[in-house]
Specification:
This is ABC transporter permease. The protein has 308 residues and is mostly helical. Helix 5 packs across helix 13 and helix 7 runs antiparallel to helix 9. Helix content is 67%, strand content 0%.
């Protein structure tokens, strides 16, 4: 009988990280569940019974239907409908895609800025280090959510009405990424200050290797371990921040709902008996953040030699 082809390269299958992952049941469960959520969100147009963005697809005569297993539920509205006849399951699938994209994009943007500024501050030191770190201290002295609200509100107010909906997602990414880069910069700076005193960095300086090559090829690879853990955990925080901003009304608009927007809209009908409008998006948000945090906890333990 022919053997099944292996999806992972041999170097990865034989690594300690892969062995640690296979030996960690909660990490495997969280990764599988998060992959399922991401795939269903990615293929939402093929899976969802309805396009919640298409107003022509909404059926007002099917509004406020309860979940399928409750009295009055109808197929194909598995999780019921809202007050406009929008299918809750379809809205959750599309909303999860928006939330995951915003969370991932904001983490990547903050990581790029934080890595760059942290490497520069740690390698050069002196006044360069003071300027970058004092700017970070100013951001840390203000509440995270307040900075995000201020950036989002100012950008939205400065844009023409026709561009507010189109640029809502990149504005939200910037609003979350701006106060988030400081943590990466401080982590990389601390590692870079240690690595720049190593013999191999001193040898590279003696043969006049350019500073940017030293930072990218010698220092950066040795600073990525704590950054990977921080980025994983901050991915969940970024999704929660997006949900908070959307819940407060300065995030995604109602015609492009994220999970936070769905929770904000559903919260208005919580005490009128339409509990499913807010409960199911909240459960989806909790599952995503829980899976990300479980993977982050495993990664922190796996990459920390003191915990092995």
């Amino acid at each position: 009988m022919p053997r099944m082809p292996r999806l992972l390269p041999a170097s990865w299958r034989e690594s300690d990280l892969w062995f640690s992952f296979r030996s960690h049941p909660s990490a495997v469960f969280a990764a599988c569940l998060l992959a399922l959520i991401a795939l269903t969100a990615l293929f939402a147009p093929l899976i969802a019974p309805q396009n919640p963005y298409d107003l022509a697809a909404l059926e007002l005569w099917n509004a406020e239907l309860p979940p399928l297993w409750a009295e009055g539920g109808q197929w194909p509205y598995l999780l019921g409908t809202d007050t406009q006849g929008r299918d809750i399951l379809s809205a959750i699938l599309y909303g999860s895609r928006v939330s995951l994209v915003i969370g991932l994009a904001s983490v990547v943007a903050a990581l790029a800025v934080g890595l760059t500024l942290g490497l520069v501050a740690g390698y050069f030191g002196g006044w360069v280090d003071n300027v970058i770190m004092r700017a970070g201290d100013v951001l840390l002295s203000m509440p995270f959510i307040l900075i995000a609200i201020l950036i989002s509100a100012m950008a939205t107010a400065a844009l023409p009405a026709g561009l507010k909906g189109l640029l809502a997602l990149p504005i939200l990414v910037i609003a979350i990424a701006v106060p988030s880069w400081v943590q990466y910069a401080r982590t990389v700076r601390a590692s870079a200050m240690v690595e720049r005193r190593r013999e191999y960095v001193q040898a590279a300086r003696l043969i006049r290797v350019k500073p940017w090559r030293i930072m990218l090829h010698h220092i950066l690879p040795n600073t990525l371990t704590p950054v990977m853990v921080a980025a994983t955990l901050n991915f969940g925080l970024a999704i929660l921040s997006e949900a908070t901003l959307s819940f407060l009304g300065v995030g995604m608009p109602p015609d492009q709902p994220s999970l936070g927007t769905l929770i904000r809209v559903g919260n208005q009908y919580l005490f009128s008996g339409l509990w499913w409008i807010v409960v199911f998006p909240s459960v989806q948000l909790c599952l995503i953040v829980l899976c990300v945090n479980m993977i982050g906890d495993w990664l922190r333990d796996a990459l920390n030699p003191k915990l092995r």
